[in-house]
Design goal:
The chain is of the alpha/beta class and 207 residues long. It has a single domain (4-197), classed as Uracil-DNA Glycosylase, subunit E, CATH 3.40.470. It contains seven helices and five strands. The protein has a five-stranded mixed beta sheet with strand order 3-4-2-1-5. A hairpin with a 2-residue loop joins strand 3 and strand 4 (145-149). Helix 1 (4-16) runs antiparallel to helix 4 (91-108). The protein is globular.
Length: 207
């Protein structure tokens, strides 16, 4: 019987070969086979992440690192929208990637999930406005796996939401909830957080 790490390593190897979505720019970005009770789920990687070969490696990631110290997030690039901004992943691309995420939930069986940005949050709960969900904790299930969900806003420099009221105060409240969560407390100072993406090939900013 393969261990969880072996299962995850095999899964990541298959994921990196994925070419299901013809409109995105491969390869998928993965932080590797990280076995953890905490999963951070981002919207999609930016244009720099495929080159740097790790999630949240550029501007938004630097902000996220400040929020989480050493923790990081996400994976694959949808390309640019006609406006010049990063294209938000299409519904069919999100569906294509959902099988990868479902497998990861089954392997990792996390106790705490942290979706980053509205697109990621909406894969689990309704989110018409960020101020209705940021700073709160939700008990959520995906398949046969139940876990606590603590949403965060996207750390993109394009969005000022987390820098002004009420976003600034709600972000602080959310970070305190994350810091106090038993799954986060169980991590040693060197233990990584498993980082995933809704769409594993790059794109999308918070709306």
């Amino acid at each position: 019987m393969p261990s969880r790490r072996q299962k995850l390593e095999n899964h990541v190897a298959r994921l990196r070969r994925c070419r299901r979505c013809p409109r995105v720019i491969p390869p998928p970005v993965s932080g590797g086979a990280i076995v953890s009770g905490v999963m951070v789920i981002g919207q999609a990687p930016g244009v720099r992440e495929p080159t740097l070969k790790r999630p949240f490696a550029h501007t938004a990631g630097k902000t996220l690192f400040r929020w989480f110290e050493e923790f990081s997030v996400i994976r694959c690039f949808p390309g640019k929208a006609p406006s010049g901004s990063d294209r938000v992943p299409a519904p069919d691309e999100i569906r294509n990637c959902s099988a990868w995420m479902n497998a990861e939930f089954e392997i990792l069986r996390p106790r705490l999930v942290i979706p980053v940005g509205r697109l990621a949050i909406m894969q689990f709960i309704d989110c018409k406005k960020l101020d209705t969900v940021i700073g709160r904790s939700f008990l959520v299930s995906r398949g046969e796996v139940s876990f606590d969900l603590i949403p965060l806003p996207h750390p993109s420099g394009v969005s000022p939401w987390h820098k002004i009221s009420p976003g600034r105060e709600l972000l602080v409240r959310a970070m305190k909830k994350i810091a106090r969560h038993p799954a986060m407390r169980a991590l040693s100072s060197r233990a990584p957080v498993a980082c995933l993406a809704v769409a594993l090939c790059e794109g999308g900013r918070d709306l």
